[in-house]
Amino acid sequence: xxSVKRLEETTQIVSNIKAAENLYFIDVHSPQIAQALRPGxxxxxxxxxxxxKILRRPFxxxxxxxxxxxxxxxxxxxxxxxxxxxxxxxxxxxxxxxxIGNAWAPPAGARCLxxxxxxGAAPLFMLAQELAQAAHGVHxxxxxxxxxALVALADYEALPHTTLSxxxxxxxxxxxxxxxxxxxxxxDSGEYDYVAVCGPEPLIKIVSGLAQDAGLPCEVSLERRMxxxxxxxxxxxxDTVEGKKRCCVDGPIFKASEVVW
Length: 261
What we know:
- This protein is α/β, with parallel strands linked by helices.
- The chain has 2 domains: 7-100, Elongation Factor Tu (Ef-tu), domain 3, CATH 2.40.30; 112-221, 3-Layer(aba) Sandwich (Rossmann fold).
- The chain contains 6 helices and 16 strands.
- Helix 5 (180-188) packs parallel to helix 6.
- It is globular.
């Protein structure tokens, strides 16, 4: 929400590890932001060593360790900025602003279905942790192109009170095909009261429609190009039934029912 208190920290990279082709986990020491972050919120990073690229990059936070003062981002190399980010080493410094945006808000006591496609597994993990710690029943559906790309699988498998389904496009692990099918099967079971989904927009749109058809409340985490991250530049607008909203400060979590697809 717009009232979220944002912090700016000069942080130090703890590790930057390649997990699979074009997929990396970067851990940074950012004690203030790590302590303040809620599931679903994100950070804005100034990538060091790129003086010609002054705009910060938004990254969803995968997990935090408040005791160690660290946060972890799962990112995919898709352009010059993330390509350069993948070359940075432990000890290098970068500037972060966060937490930005709102958090997931499942109804109290809800039986929750979480659906993450690709790096969309990242913004859902802290929510899954929170639900697992509260001993809520939670079912997670993860999808990726290949088994190797399911880089968050082990962390999700380690959560208590959590049922996990997986799908791969090439059939190398779990269901052979898109994760929309296991998601539909879970929704059709009638066992869930709430759905949260993040990933490519076609996936979000399909799962949102399935939830709506089943009469289930559904929240989605949307991704847009963000120049400022503070709601001033209007580069990240989302069309909603209430008009245009800004993904960075009005989101990134939206009720699926309010998004105009």
